[in-house]
Write a structure and sequence with these properties.
With 398 residues, the protein is α+β, with helices and mostly antiparallel strands. The protein has 13 helices and ten strands. The chain folds into three domains: 83 residues, no CATH class; 109 residues, Beta Barrel (Butyryl-CoA Dehydrogenase, subunit A, domain 2), CATH 2.40.110; 151 residues, Butyryl-CoA Dehydrogenase, subunit A, domain 3. The strands form three sheets. A four-stranded mixed sheet has the order 1-4-5-8. A four-stranded antiparallel sheet has the order 2-3-7-6, with no helix packed on it. Helix 8 packs antiparallel against helix 9. The radius of gyration is 22 Å and the shape is globular. Bound molecules: flavin-adenine dinucleotide (FAD). The site of flavin-adenine dinucleotide has 18 residues, from strand 1 and helix 13.
Length: 398
């Protein structure tokens, strides 16, 4: 396994670092580095800057707007972005539905949707989970009944992240319930402003509005909006899920958080001295640092395998479990270090309309909100228990 960067790769790293330093808006990077909340308009602004440079979709094939970079270049690029404090772009568009459209969509669908995904004009959400159909996704019940050239859709989706801000949804619907449950699902794309769609907010424990329940009542969608063949949606849905789990390690973001925790600990007084000097704290930080190094080397090992054209195995499942566990460990450490200052959440100012200045010291911002939302990381994108089941089946044949 060769883990060192070549001179060309180091030159590429330098080029990216300089460009990002000159083009990432400071107000956005300050929010990201300080733990503040990035808005949809911040994300759109950064998305368009990357689009204009031609760097918005490194993972896409060149013919559809990708960069043609090697796996290592993509890794370097991602790390440089997180290092500089760039927010992550909307995964539902670029990582999920985009690749489904260019892989399985018709020429008309590619022409209609790919430009809006690339330039950031069109915002997407994911309509997979339903009440009672999460881990057992194939049991989904939202029904699409044929009516001439259209489907009439009735049912509900839940935990739909960003549905309240999305222009379009990619949605799994049941078009046949006569056979095996996986064989009667279709994959549809439709706008969120169609008559009969209602979005109902769910406020999560951290006080945020990111997820929703979406209700469909007699929503009419042209059959031309279906990806691929009727009843073959499960194939496209699974392809998308692997993409969702890829790139989940976010080593750069975790390094950033670890250094934030260390900086805070170096200034946090407790009875008898600085937290950074307490042996029990130092032990925890060291354990987290070792886990982070292991995660980084695993990612590099997988990239090195890709360079040699090894077929991907269960890496995406493995990285999902390791990365989300570490994310939760780091958020617990962050809470410990931030202490009482981790409790207030600036988002509450939006909810209460208060314009009082924040009482939270630099670096402690959002600790509790991060921690509470982060509980979901081992659930969304397929729960960690399910990932372990998949690995056990594939690797241990049990
Ligand atoms: C913050 C957040 C955002 C989300 N965003 C979206 C989104 O944008 N779009 C979307 O479609 N979905 C979204 N989801 C839904 C997410 O994919 C599901 O929550 C997830 O797949 C788990 O399904 P469930 O909630 O129905 O839990 P269940 O499937 O009911 O699972 C409950 C518990 O039982 C365990 N369990 C279930 N089956 C097994 C088994 N066979 N073996 C061992 N353990 C098992 C699970 O691991 C879990 O711990 C989001 C979820 C969250 C929390």
């Amino acid at each position: 396994m060769d883990l060192s960067f070549s001179p060309e790769e180091l030159a590429f790293q330098q080029e990216v670092r300089e460009w990002v330093g000159a083009n990432l808006p400071v107000d956005i990077s300050e929010k990201v580095l300080g733990g503040g909340k990035v808005t949809k308009s911040d994300l759109k602004r950064w998305h368009k800057i990357l689009f204009e440079k031609g760097w918005v979709a490194p993972a896409w094939p060149e013919e559809y707007g990708g960069t043609g970079w090697s796996a290592v270049q993509k890794y370097i690029f991602a790390e440089e972005l997180t290092r500089a404090g760039a927010p992550e772009l909307l995964g539902f568009s670029l990582k999920m539905v985009g690749p489904v459209i260019f892989t399985y969509g018709s020429e008309e669908q590619k022409a209609q949707h790919l430009p809006g995904i690339l330039n950031g004009d069109v915002w997407w959400c994911q309509g997979y989970s339903e009440p009672g159909s999460g881990s057992d996704l194939a049991s989904l019940k939202t029904k699409a009944v044929s009516d001439g050239d259209d489907y009439i859709i009735n049912g509900t989706k839940i935990w739909t992240t960003g549905a309240h801000e999305a222009d379009w949804i990619f949605c799994l619907v049941r078009t046949d319930d006569s056979g095996k449950k996986q064989e009667g699902i279709s994959f549809l794309l439709f706008p969120m402003d169609l008559p009969g769609i209602e979005v109902s907010p769910i406020i999560t424990i951290g006080g945020e509005h990111s997820v929703n329940q979406v209700f469909f009542t007699d929503v009419r969608v042209p059959k031309a909006n279906r990806i691929g063949e009727e009843n073959m949606g499960w194939t496209y849905a699974k392809f998308l899920l692997v993409n969702e789990r890829n790139g989940i390690a976010q080593v750069g973001g975790k390094k950033r958080q670890l250094s934030r925790i260390k900086n805070l600990a170096a200034t946090s007084e407790m009875a008898g001295g600085l937290l950074a000097e307490a042996p029990s704290y130092r032990q925890k930080i060291t354990d987290a640092e070792i886990a982070l190094m292991a995660l980084e080397y695993s990612e590099l090992r997988f990239l090195s395998g890709q360079k040699l054209d090894h077929a991907p195995g269960t890496e995406a499942n493995m990285m999902k479990v390791a990365a989300t566990q570490l994310q939760q460990t780091l958020s617990e450490l962050f809470i410990e270090v931030a202490g009482y200052y981790g409790m207030p959440y600036d988002g509450f100012q939006d909810l209460t309309g208060s314009n009082e200045p924040s009482v939270i010291p630099d670096g402690a911002q959002g600790a509790m909100a991060d921690h509470l939302y982060g509980r979901a990381a081992t659930i969304y994108g397929g729960s960690n228990e399910i990932q372990r089941d998949v690995m056990a089946k594939v690797l241990l044949s049990i």
